[in-house]
Structure formats: C-alpha cells, structure tokens
Design brief:
Blueprint: H1 12-24, E1 34-44, E2 51-61, E3 63-71, E4 81-90, E5 95-102, E6 111-119, E7 124-131, E8 134-142
Antiparallel strand pairs: 1-2, 1-8, 2-3, 3-4, 4-5, 5-6, 6-7, 7-8
C-alpha cells in the first residue's frame, strides 16, 4: 500500500494539544479518530445515481488506513465489486482527509481525494471527493 505518511513523525506536544482540544470541547477523544466499520454513500454532481460502499478501518487512529468495497458501477463489467485501499489523517478540528487507491479490480486503478468533517459526536462524516475535474459528495456513518 502506498504510504502518505511514510516520513511523518508525530510531535508529542502537538498530539497533547489535539487531545486537550477534543477532551475539553466535550467530545470524547476517540470521536475524532477513525476506527471500526462504516457504511457510506458517494454521489456525483450530475444525474448518476449514488453508490453505496463499505469502509473498514484496519489501522485506526488519527492517521488511519483501511479498505473500501463498492459495487462496480464504472469498471470492467466482469467484476462485481471494486476494491480500494485508503489512508488518511484526522485533524484536531474534526476535519478529515484521505485518499483511496483502487486496487485494479474491474480494471480500475486511480486515486480519489476525500475531504470531510465529523458530525454526530464523531459517528458521521460528510464531505466531498475529487478526481481531477470530476467531483461529488460523500457521507459515512459508523456502524
């Protein structure tokens, strides 16, 4: 898997500030971490129907990684599903950034950038995605 954070070294003081911001804001510290299984849907900014997907965090935390599965709606028709790995980061303010990399299933192998923000006390995430000039929206809900 491609590592976005290969050269990242967490700063303990920054982590302490982030934890204190989350704890003292009344939101549990784990609310601003990605963990567990999520159900999602993404849509396009045109008339195409939305696509449901699953989002499984296999490396939880502020810097997270995992695997996504979605029905094949645009790849080679012999593949029933498309699979992608993702890596991302949660910021202390509840904003989230991640990139998913399709693994070649259905002959699909590009990356997609996602930007979102936590809501519902850390149990939901909403935002937008972009691939070059193509863009749309997404939502995730913790299962």
């Amino acid at each position: 898997m491609i590592s976005l954070f290969r050269n990242f070294r967490p700063l303990l003081s920054g982590l302490a500030i982030a934890i204190s911001v989350v704890v003292f804001s009344g939101i549990p510290a784990q609310a601003y971490e990605m963990w567990g299984r999520w159900s999602g849907v993404y849509g396009y900014n045109d008339r195409r129907p939305p696509v449901n997907f699953t989002f499984e965090v296999t490396q939880p935390g502020v810097h997270f990684a995992g695997r996504m599965t979605e029905p094949n709606t645009f790849g080679n028709s012999r593949a029933r599903f498309l699979y992608a790995d993702f890596e991302g980061q949660v910021n202390p303010d509840g904003s989230v950034y991640f990139i998913k990399f399709y693994d070649g299933s259905g002959n699909v192998g590009h990356g997609v950038e996602y930007h979102g923000r936590f809501g519902n006390r850390g149990n939901a995430l909403k935002g937008s995605w972009r691939i070059g000039n193509a863009h749309g929206w997404f939502t995730l809900n913790r299962e």
